[in-house]
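It is worth pausing here to work through a concrete case rather than discussing structure prediction in the abstract. The textbook approach is simple: state the sequence, then state the predicted structure, then interpret. We follow exactly that order.
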Amino acid sequence: MARLLLLSNGHGEDLSGALLGQALKAQGHDVEALPLVGRGNPYGEATIPLVGRTREFSTGGLGYTTFRGRLTELIQGQVIYLLRRLLRLMRIAGRYDLVVVIGDVIPVMAAWLCHRPVATYLVAYSSHYEGKLRLPWPCGNCLKSPRFKAVFSRDALTAVDLSEQLKREVEFVGNPFMDSVLCHSNLLPYAKRRLGLLPGSRRPELEHNLVLLLGVIEQIPISQYGRGDLEIDLALVGALGDDHLSNIAQSHGWTLVLGQDTCPARLEKGGRQIQVRRQGFTSVLLCSDLLLCMAGTAAEQAVGLAKPVLQLPGQGPQFTAGFAEAQRRLLGPTVFCAASPCEGDELLQATAKLAIELLERSVNDPDLRRDCREQAMQRLGPQGGGRKMADLISGLLQKN
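Step two, the predicted structure:
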């Protein structure tokens, strides 16, 4: 079979690339990855070999969002690192039968310069942001090149829009990053209402987000719920260990109670309990009636599962008020946020109030559930996106 190189530039892109890479490996292809930003951990977890040594920067590849972030990237050498990765790509591109791009203009342009056949999954762009996608130069010119054998979009609207703009077929077959959560895993115990907390995965933003989420839970009048009426679950990455979690909890009046046997650890304060679900991200997504979210890809996966999402903007570098507003345009009307210009305690109170309302609607409002299903199909697509994309890529290789 063919030798393929996955080229991606971001944590979410690496996740999609790893899932697509697994589908391509299952079809017998030899697959390697060259992440342009970050360590590319999803590839390692998927046992896809990485090209060269990788490095993580404090901005997480999000320095472009602020002047301070750009300056930080320059000081830390991220621009030089990126140039070195691109030079390595130029040297090794001839080894591969096809370059598979997952991302935006940077890997698209880099793949075009390789003079190799390319398949592109434009996971970073959507026409939902503005109604008509304005591709940055020279992305559109590259995608029109005969070197680009296939272009895949992240949603149906973008496929129609770009097909017209580029005067070529752009296909929407679903999103590989949905495949890992659309298959049912271990389900959580039944609860009448279940609220999931998604603070993100990047540190130190993760810690700051967690403090804000705890502040929201403190505003929920827990006394109005009987036993089993409301369960709250925190999906937490392993990078934030129990010692650090305990320190954060204690500094804000919470207590971490370590788990025993099959019982998870939990955070407690004033009669409130939050179950800490490590390695339980998919279970929290699948079983929650509402997701209180401060993350990027996780919110997309929640919408793809036909779940309502409630945002809580933070201080960044990723999940700022601006990012949250753009995310609502991307993911549609089943993503909610407390009305601005709330801030501080007022924002926490307004978010808690909206969370209570949405929890009730998620259980008792059939119109909301119908809207969630419709948006899931329009914005994220059906299950099996990775396999379908891999099938089409394999078809391209057979033609060549």
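Step three, interpretation. Confidence is low (pLDDT under 50) at residues 59-67. The radius of gyration is 21 Å.
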